[in-house]
Amino acid sequence: MKISIGIVDDQTLFLESLITLINNLTDMEVVLYASDGKDLLRKLRRQDSHPDILLIDVLMPDMSGADVVIAVKEAYPDIRLAALSVLNDSFSVLKMIRAGCCAYLPKTMNTLELKLALTEIWKKGYYNSHLIKVENTEETLSPILLTEREMEFLELACSDLNYHEIAKRMFLSIKTIDGYRASLFNKFNVKSRTGLVLEAIKRNIVKVIS
């Protein structure tokens, strides 16, 4: 049984190239594609079956990627959603995660990583090796002990606040905030703020609400 993939992207050349690439991967098939959010929603309503995974571009006309994610997640909760973009700044990533994406895939990723990403999303529900290691192992899922202040920092890290704003909110110096950040990166075995958020969501430590 092939993993069924849907793609929405307004860049025609990229869309056509990605369709060809995925269809050439073993056990994967593009069953739906659209040029924007409205086109996608129309096609989803007309189909009896829906893709296992939907890749959604962040920047599109009419409806933003986040708006598309929210609409699809509400109407079709079983579809696993992944952001696809050239953007890699943390706020763009966090916006898509808060909307309901389980992964953030850069358009610059190579074929092998794309195949791994789609397989992991289908099997485990989360993927982002660009940001975190998502492996269903005892070590990865072992309990993480957080202090009250670390938990407060983690919850604020899931917001749109930058680190200076988080420092003000917690009445701490930016140096202290940097210390919390480094400590949590180490505890969660991640390399970025976005990776920290994804790992915390995967472990059900925090719930990110749009």
Automatic annotation (TrEMBL):
InterPro entries: CheY-like_superfamily, NreC/VraR/RcsB-like_REC, Sig_transdc_resp-reg_C-effctor, Sig_transdc_resp-reg_receiver, Tscrpt_reg_LuxR_C, WalR-like. SUPFAM superfamilies: C-terminal effector domain of the bipartite response regulators (SSF46894), CheY-like (SSF52172). It comes from the Bacteria. Residues 139-204 form the HTH luxR-type domain. Keywords: DNA-binding, Phosphoprotein. It holds the Pfam family Response_reg. Residues 4-122 form the Response regulatory domain. CDD domains: LuxR_C_like (cd06170), REC_NarL-like (cd17535). The modification 4-aspartylphosphate is found at residue 57. The keyword Phosphoprotein applies. This is Response regulator. The lineage of its organism: Bacteria, Pseudomonadati, Bacteroidota, Sphingobacteriia, Sphingobacteriales.
